[in-house]
C-alpha cells in the first residue's frame, strides 16, 4: 500500500473519530444540552442546615479513599473533589450522626450522578 493510500485512510479514520466524538460525550440534563468532558472533576459539597444550630459528624469513603470524619458546624460545609472512574461505578458512601439520629447513605453514585451534577450539593 502506497504512502498516499495510507494517508487517505488515516484522514478518513481521523475525520470519522472527530465527527462522532461530540455525539458520544454529550448528554441532555435538566438545563439542556451540555458538553461533558470525560473524566472531568466532580465537586461535592455537604451543607449543615440543621435546625437548632446543631453540629453533625460525617465520615465519607469510597473503595479507594477514606476521607475521614469531619464535624460540620451550623451553616458550615464540607467539600471534596474527585474524578469518576471510566466505568461509571464510582461510589462515595457516608455515615452521618447528629442529635436527631444517624445513618449511612450513598452520597455519590456514578451510575446515578455522573451526568446529573459536576457540583453536587
Give an overview in words.
It is elongated, with a radius of gyration of 21 Å. The protein has helices at residues 3-24, 110-113; strands at residues 26-28, 33-35, 41-47, 56-61, 66-72, 77-83, 91-98, 101-109, 119-120. It contains 2 helices and 9 strands. With 121 residues, it is of the alpha+beta class. A hairpin with a 2-residue loop joins strand 7 (91-98) and strand 8. It folds into 2 domains: 1-36; 39-120, Immunoglobulin-like (Sandwich), CATH 2.60.40.10. The longest helix has 22 residues, at 3-24. Helix content is 21%, strand content 43%. It has a 4-stranded antiparallel β-sheet. A 3-stranded mixed β-sheet has the order 6-3-9, with no helix packed on it.
Notable characteristics:
2 domains; alpha+beta; 3-stranded mixed β-sheet; 4-stranded antiparallel β-sheet; Immunoglobulin-like; 121 residues; elongated; 9 strands; 21% helix
Shape: elongated
What count of structural domains? Answer: 2
- What is the number of strand segments? 9
Task: Flag low-confidence runs.
Answer: 10-30, 32-37
User: What's the CATH H-level homologous superfamily of the largest domain?
Assistant: Immunoglobulins
Q: Compute the separation of the termini in Å.
A: 56 Å
CATH architecture of the largest domain: Sandwich
Largest sheet: 4 strands, antiparallel
Mean pLDDT: 75
Furnish the topology, listing elements before pairings:
Elements lengths: L2 H22 L1 E3 L4 E3 L5 E7 L8 E6 L4 E7 L4 E7 L7 E8 L2 E9 H4 L5 E2 L1
Parallel strand pairs: 3-9
Antiparallel strand pairs: 1-2, 3-6, 4-5, 4-7, 7-8
Amino acid at each position: 500500500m502506497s504512502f498516499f493510500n495510507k494517508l487517505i485512510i488515516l484522514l478518513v479514520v481521523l475525520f470519522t473519530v472527530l465527527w462522532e466524538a461530540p455525539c458520544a460525550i454529550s448528554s441532555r440534563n435538566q438545563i439542556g444540552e451540555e458538553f461533558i468532558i470525560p473524566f472531568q472533576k466532580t465537586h461535592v459539597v455537604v451543607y449543615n442546615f440543621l435546625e437548632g444550630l446543631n453540629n453533625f459528624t460525617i465520615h465519607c469513603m469510597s473503595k479507594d479513599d477514606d476521607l475521614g470524619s469531619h464535624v460540620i458546624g451550623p451553616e458550615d460545609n464540607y467539600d471534596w473533589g474527585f474524578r469518576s472512574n471510566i466505568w461509571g461505578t464510582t461510589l462515595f458512601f457516608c455515615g452521618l450522626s447528629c442529635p436527631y439520629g444517624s445513618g449511612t447513605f450513598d452520597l455519590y453514585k456514578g451510575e446515578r450522578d455522573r451526568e446529573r451534577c459536576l457540583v453536587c450539593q
